[in-house]
């Protein structure tokens, strides 16, 4: 899927079920034209989700269910009026790589890695200070056990966000 613009659909904006798909430069939802569910709903493995936007959907901005997916350079939510109704990024699976994504003003978590060992590199959650129009409603990052972070590349509230150990890790839970 390349350069699609699903707005105001009765279900998910972009819905993909299967393996080895590429979704690039697509847009799902806008302030006056949200979809009824998730902006992007991808189930499967070895998919690439890159350079997409998901704004103002009542579900998740990006729901990625499965393993070995690359999620790179995507935007989920921007300001209060453009945030998604659930998580900016919900990742439910193992061995997914999230790189250079932005999650702002979503009603729940910016990034929710609900299962498995996943890797985060150079992502940003809450790209401004606490209480701003870019603040996510719950956690900036919510981790399942086993998630690892690139050293120094992830940010929350515009500050570096890293774990401990090698590779850098955080225990399961909510970090804000």
What does this structure look like?
- It is a single chain.
- This protein is an all-beta fold and 176 residues long.
- Helix content is 0%, strand content 34%.
- It is built from no helices and 21 strands.
- The strands form 3 sheets. It has a 7-stranded mixed beta sheet with strand order 1-4-7-10-13-16-21, with no helix packed on it.
- A hairpin with a 2-residue loop joins β18 and β19.
- The chain is globular.
Q: How many helices? A: 0
Please describe the biggest sheet, giving its number of strands, its sense, and whether it closes into a barrel.
7 strands, mixed
The quaternary structure here is single chain
Global Rg = 14 Å
- The helix/strand class is mainly beta
Number of strands: 21
Low-confidence stretches: none
User: What is the element string, with H for helices and E for strands?
Assistant: EEEEEEEEEEEEEEEEEEEEE
Helical amount: under 10%
